[in-house]
Amino acid sequence: MTEQVEQNLTNETKKSKYACTVCGYVYDESVERVLWADLAENWTCPKCGVGKDLFESMQEEPVVSSQKPAGIMPKTADKITKDMTIGELVQNYPSVVEIMLAEGVHCVGCGAAHWETIEQGLKGHGKTDKEVEEVVRKLNEAIPEEHGSSDKIIITSKAAVKLKEILKSQNKENMGLRIQVMPGGCSGFQYGFDFEESAKENDEVIEVEDVKFFIDTQSIQMLRGAKVDYVDSLQGAGFKISNPNAKATCGCGQSFS
Q: Which domains does the chain have, with CATH numbers?
């Protein structure tokens, strides 16, 4: 990164976000550390592959200095706000989407406007400022606890509790869940879930709520930073993986490239 770009991202400037109008992916200058204007003209959305012309500028806000030494940037707090886009909500907190659906806001499927903010989506359905604040409060309260690490894989407490219920209902309480990535699906790779009694050699094992998740070494390379959650909504129920390594994801959410 050039010294000029670094200077442009100091406290004297504002951080800007640009949302993809197709898939909802958000380019945040303060996170990427490269200004939108400095991106190559042939740059494409890492999630769905469209060009810069299909992105829209979002509201800007002043950068607050962290006064921390140079190094890894501190991660933005994982908290839902009214200014978060619907696309960000679905990607980062899939298990709370049912709250938005209950309010009449389409978060998934063809009718979803992923580039809209939560506030815009709710007000588009007649919600007042006070009602928007109440929905945002409910969303934050519904965020499940997360276990694991961002350099490997994250498991939410909701996913673990649901797995525990499923294992008990099927009299398989001595087993765990294997998560793997394998060739197939409409996008090139697909996620696989299967019950398994014990870990294999070199497996990554994550234990949450007294249940175990097994991931093989090859799959973990494609799942670094991914989050495993459980979604129960009108659109269907099941384990959901939000994978930051996926360049494109099919409509069903079970395959990616």
A: 3-62 (2.20.28.10), 86-141 (no CATH), 147-256 (2.60.300.12)
